[in-house]
Design brief:
- By secondary structure, the chain is an alpha/beta fold.
- The chain has one domain (10-120): 2,3-Dihydroxybiphenyl 1,2-Dioxygenase, domain 1.
- It contains two helices and seven strands; from the N terminus they run βαβββαβββ.
- The strands form two sheets. It has a four-stranded mixed β-sheet, covered by helices on one side. A three-stranded mixed β-sheet has the order 1-3-2, with helices on one face.
- This is Glyoxalase.
- It comes from Bradyrhizobium lablabi.
- InterPro entries: Glyas_Bleomycin-R_OHBP_Dase (IPR029068).
């Protein structure tokens, strides 16, 4: 797939290590080839999954992210909603807007919804 036309979120984070670990659990990883040498700054991280999803993490400017007032949100379309829900001890449900999903917060209280269209779920055809 060509990256032309792709839109990738750049998410500010107060603790890049904690955020990277959280998104690793959703299948987003950073290749070793993109990690800096020991002692070099590591303030921008480009994560991807094996399904064409990308997420960039950057150090938040002081004061950007206030606990309980984070304005950011992400939606991950993921066919394996149930597996992701188990990983995070969540309970997905069918929503009136036609999605089977669950919601949670990342370490900086960014809203993260994980879902898949109800009509496309196995057994719903």
């Amino acid at each position: 797939m060509s990256p032309s036309g792709s839109l990738i979120a750049i998410l500010p984070c107060n603790d890049l290590d904690a955020s990277e670990r959280f998104y690793n659990r959703l299948g987003f990883v950073r290749p070793d080839s993109q990690k800096p040498a020991p002692g070099e700054p590591d303030t921008y991280r480009m994560l991807s999954n094996s399904k064409g999803g990308y997420l960039h993490l950057t150090d938040a400017v002081e004061g950007w992210l206030t606990p309980g007032r984070n304005p950011f949100g992400l939606y991950l379309y993921l066919e394996s909603v149930d597996a992701a829900a188990r990983e995070f001890q969540q309970s997905p449900e069918d929503k009136p807007w036609g999605m089977y999903e669950f919601a949670m917060s990342d370490p900086d209280e960014t809203l993260v919804r994980v879902g898949w269209p109800t009509r496309l779920r196995a057994g719903n055809q």
